Amino acid sequence: MKIVIGTVVVVLIIGFAWYFQKNQKQVVDNESIKIGAILALSGPSAIWGESVRNGMNLAFEDHPELSVIYEDSKGTAADGITAYQNLKLKDPDIFVSALSIVSIPLASLAKDDKKVMLITQSAANNITNEYAYRYYTDADHFALPSFESEISPLKNVKKLAVVYRNDEYAISVANKIKQLSAEQGKEIVFFESYVPNEADFSTILLKAKQANPEALLFIPTPPSESLGILKKVEELKFNIPIIEVSNVQSDPETQAKAPNIPFYTNQFAFSIPGNSESFKQRYKAKYNKEPNFVAAFGYDMVNLIASCDKNDIKGCLDNKKEVTGVTGTAKNIKNHDIVIPMYLTKVH
């Protein structure tokens, strides 16, 4: 009898020891997750990279067990690749990247290297793959509000002019606009791109106006493009509905610099007054300014990563069916696409 009891005690001790070691190992693994973040910290798109970094750093206050190494993509593909190669030498457990022009080549590199990458601020088509995940929105959700929102001025017009940035993101959105226009019987009378970081929109907008559209849709990326187009629209006296089929103007600092003319833009639920107030107040207290939507995505990405175990970050992300953060809720997640819906809003 004593032998049996002794055997049971030994088995229980071994079992508890195994359980303790297993759970202790999980804690250590979670504490040691290292993030390599590739953001535009200089150049025309620096407002976005700095905001993502601010949001991430705010989340790190809640997750001091995580670590991060930042590299500057300067908002270009070439510098993004250099940043990725530099970070790869430091062997992060997961990469974070922002902007389509930067993230598209990096997604391919991550797949080749079998490194998990979480991408934000990219609506380009086909950016996800076996190792690349998007936490943002897609081209469809950028274009749809302009055609489906109850407040959209396109309900009453038939002729459209489309001016867009010549990069993967804007081309993807512009092509969706083409599709939706055809489906709704609208005619695109002007459809032309401009080079990234263009400073003079006189020629392209004058040509757009001469096409006699009933509404102008434009797709920028950095604030300089959005503000440049709106100021030229005011100067040329378009006097037709203007829609930014992007969300640059949902950034409070950028919108404050826009001319005093009526126009529409997209926004995430986060940007609606009253939503995510706790995060907004905390961000403002730390940085002395209002957060924009990409700061919120930076915050949410860190919280998402923190919910995973270092030993199986990929499996963790693969198994997410719904994700909720300060940016909103993504449901029915598939194909590595964590898509947050957008809404059309009128400015001025």
In short:
With 348 residues, the protein is α/β, with parallel strands linked by helices. The chain contains twelve helices and 14 strands.
Contiguous helical run count: 12
Tally of DSSP β-strands:
14
In CATH, the architecture of the largest domain is 3-Layer(aba) Sandwich
- Major sheet: arrangement of strands: 2-1-3-4-5-13
Q: Give me the strand/helix succession.
A: HEHEHEHEEHEHEHEHEHEHHHEEEE
What's the CATH superfamily of the largest domain, by name?
A: Response regulator
- Number of domain modules: 3
Helical content band: 40-55%
Terminal Cα span: 86 Å
Largest sheet: 6 strands, parallel
Low-pLDDT stretches are 1-30
How much strand content do the residues show?
15-25%
Multimer state: single chain
Q: At the first level of CATH, what is the class of the largest domain?
A: Alpha Beta
Give the integer mean of the pLDDT values: 92
Radius of gyration: 23 Å
